[in-house]
Design goal:
Layout (H helix, E strand, L loop, with lengths): L1 H15 L10 E3 L15 H4 L20 E3 L8 E3 L13 E3 L3 H6 L1 H10 L26 H10 L3 H6 L7 H29 L6 H18 L7 E2 L2 H16 L4 H21 L11 H28 L11 H26 L9 H9 L1 H15 L47 H6 L1 H22 L12 H18 L6 E2 L1 H10 L1 E7 L5 E8 L4 H12 L4 H4 L4 H14 L5 H8 L12 H5 L2 H23 L3 H4 L1 H19 L6 H7 L2
Antiparallel strand pairs: 1-2, 3-4, 5-6, 7-8
Helix pairs in contact: 5-17, 7-8, 7-9, 7-18, 7-19, 8-17, 8-19, 9-16, 10-16, 10-17, 11-12, 11-16, 11-21, 11-24, 12-13, 12-14, 12-21, 16-18, 16-26, 22-24, 24-26
Length: about 675
């Protein structure tokens, strides 16, 4: 009876489930959480607080390489497994492979089929990972799955986001960060506000830019997933605004009313991106793209600082002439240059002060944390002592009213922009139905810009070597921008804000604790040992930013060149740790034996090392050139070129396989 039953079972399985040719050993992905090599499940909050969360991609693998696999031992006799070959073999690939003794199966047929259901070797393509186990940049396969995973990851840590600023001796560091970032955010707001006013005929201005930055920061400090990221006006956003303003002028449509519809469309696109996990596409961005973007923003800040100093010599035509005003103009240029450069050098000296032996550890810590603020106050005071020299100072509005007036009448517009209203600031009509749908096109470009700015900046913040412990929430950050920030900016006639890279990185670095150590080659390296991950600094910075509107009498005493020195400090301090910056310095060392012994230097031959640097630097040069094109219609290509960088990184090495091996790319771009 047993033999007959066994033959019947074997024949039924053979004809009902055709068996393919012998398959290779069952394999499964080597990483438990694709897209995040150090991710800890939110079910273990305690583990998440001690395990670094990466930027969202495997730092040790090439994302353009096929996923590595490892073999799983074959099941023992009497066990069963179901193999899934991803649909390549049709129904045959979904059939069950039964291994074992048919006599044992016949003796316990119910146990056999129960074993199939509960076997650890079953792998079904329809099985989905629980929401709580998703990595920050992993597709969930569910509606709003990534957003829900972000909430599950961040909500248990929300209380510590507020308390951590005041525990463990962090109070001094957070207070110093607020003071430093207040000036670092105020000056760009004023500068971009003046640029918006010039480009839009005072439809937008300094008041609106400061309020926009402050309002965005307040919302973001309470609701964001990564509160270390700072929102503010950016250069690409200015270019987009100029193009949209010129379109409205050419079509005789009111600019501010049209921006309301642009904001609503942009909000819709951004929300859809967050709900459908499209931020997970950013895991194809490797260190190659991140460092080009980071290096570019640093260069913009450094060049901008020196441009401010050089303008002192070019703004007045009589600096070198025989006019009686020439000596005063020369004195202004010379004093301004000294104030700007000494602000930078003093801030750098204070930053390195903890490594010295003078004074007590507490005093050294105070000087290091408050170095930038002390530099601003010191050289602003020196300039006040030479107030007869007339060095240009910060321009602040005298009253808090909208910049635009109603059709040139001199009466300020209301704060709320009615997209259907009769009275407009430009005198043109509000948009019709056709133009309302047309605004979806520039809104799509604006949404792409926000997507790239937000995610690239957050990727840089969440990099593995920054040793963050709470992880990122990319979908949640975009969702907050789409639900709150973009619509508010549109209805109140405020410039849109996006993640500001250098300000965000400066915020991160102001909360870091670093220690120097020796690597295996005897090279001194600086490693991050701790970051104060909290929301208090973000809230404090933007509360002060809004309060600055009532402190114009004091803030107008701060010289612009002093803030240029702060910009120079921010740009220079953002460069250490950028491997592209380190590899560029290798070009100046002609003896390879004297190269610093970085890991990639010891693992990659000299020729592919320098060619990869040249390849990356060429992409950086193209990006920088796009930022300097005076035509705003060409400048808007900037964010889209950034979006193509991962594709360029993938295709170029494949076109030159003899130049870089897979091992070289892993060492240079991990």
């Amino acid at each position: 009876t047993d033999q007959i039953f066994a033959r019947v079972c074997r024949s039924t399985l053979t004809f009902a489930l055709p068996m393919p040719a012998p398959a290779p050993p069952f394999v499964e992905p080597a990483t438990a959480y694709p897209g995040d090599d150090n991710y800890s499940s939110v079910n273990h909050v305690a583990d998440a607080l001690v395990t670094p969360a990466t930027a969202g991609h495997d730092a040790d693998c090439d994302p353009f390489e096929e996923e590595s696999v490892r073999a799983v031992p074959a099941p023992a006799v009497g066990e069963a497994r179901v193999e899934d070959d991803g649909g390549e073999a049709g129904e045959a690939g979904k059939s069950s492979t039964v291994l074992g003794d048919t006599a044992n199966m016949s003796r316990n047929s119910s146990g056999f089929f129960q074993g199939i259901k509960s076997s650890k070797y079953i792998r079904s393509s329809k099985e989905k990972k629980p929401i709580s186990e998703l990595a920050p940049l992993e597709f969930s396969g569910r509606f709003a799955g990534g957003l829900r995973a972000d909430l599950l990851r961040r909500v248990p840590l929300y209380v510590s986001d507020w308390t951590e600023a005041f525990t463990g001796g962090n109070c001094m560091k957070t207070t110093a960060s607020i003071c430093f970032l207040f000036f670092a955010c105020l000056s760009p707001a004023v500068t971009f506000g003046a640029a918006f006013a010039d480009a839009t005929d005072n439809q937008l201005g300094v008041i609106e830019t400061i309020i926009s930055s402050g309002m965005s920061g307040l919302i973001y400090s309470f609701l964001s997933g990564q509160p270390l990221c700072i929102l503010g006006a950016t250069g690409p956003e200015l270019a987009f605004t100029v193009v949209f303003y010129e379109i409205c002028q050419s079509m005789e449509v009111d600019f501010l009313a049209a921006r309301v519809w642009q904001a609503l469309w942009c909000s819709l696109f951004t929300i859809l991106v967050a709900l459908f996990d499209l931020s997970a596409c950013m895991k194809v961005c490797t260190r190659f793209t991140e460092e080009i973007f980071s290096f570019l923003i640093s260069i913009i800040f450094i060049v901008g600082a020196f441009t401010t100093l050089i303008k002192l010599y070019l703004a007045d035509p009589d600096v070198e002439g025989d006019d009686p005003a020439a000596p005063a103009n020369r004195a202004k240029a010379f004093l301004g240059t000294l104030l700007g450069l000494f602000t930078y050098f003093t801030a750098m000296w204070c930053r390195a002060f903890p490594k010295r032996n003078e004074t007590t550890p507490l005093v050294r810590k105070l000087i290091a944390n408050y170095g930038v603020t002390l530099s601003i106050l010191l050289y602003s005071g020196i300039n006040y002592g030479f107030r007869d020299v007339d060095v240009p100072c910060l321009d602040m509005p005298d009253e808090i009213v909208p910049t635009a007036t109603l059709n040139g009448t001199g009466e300020s517009r209301g704060w709320f922009v009615n997209p259907f209203g009769d009275e407009t600031a430009s005198g043109y009509d509000t948009p019709g139905v056709g133009f309302i749908f047309f605004t979806a096109v520039p809104a799509l470009g604006l949404a792409v810009l926000g997507y790239l700015d937000q995610n690239l900046t957050t990727l840089l913040i969440n990099r593995k070597d920054h040793n963050l412990k709470k992880g990122g929430a990319y979908h949640l950050d975009l969702f907050v921008c789409g639900i709150f920030i973009y619509p508010i900016c549109g209805f109140f006639g405020l410039p849109f804000t996006h993640a500001a890279t250098v300000r965000s990185m400066s915020h991160l670095m102001s909360l870091m604790t670093r220690e120097d150590s020796k690597n295996e080659h005897g090279q001194t390296v600086s490693k991050v040992t701790n970051v104060v991950e909290q929301r208090v600094t973000h809230l404090g910075i933007h509360c002060l930013l809004l309060a600055a509107l009532g402190l114009s009498a004091v803030l107008t005493k701060i010289p612009k060149v002093v803030l240029a020195g702060v910009f120079l400090y921010m740009g220079v301090t953002a460069l250490p740790g950028v491997q592209l910056y380190e590899r560029l310095w290798l070009w100046l060392i002609w003896d390879p034996k004297k190269y610093p012994q970085y890991d990639y230097v010891t693992q990659v031959a000299r020729k592919p090392l320098h060619l990869f640097t040249l390849f990356q630097f060429s992409c950086l040069a193209v990006l920088y050139a796009l930022t300097k094109v005076p035509n705003p219609y060409i400048s808007v290509i900037f964010p889209f070129f950034i979006a193509f960088l991962p594709l360029i990184r993938k295709l170029v090495p494949k076109c030159f396989p003899s130049v870089w091996s897979k091992e070289d790319l892993k060492a240079l771009d991990k």
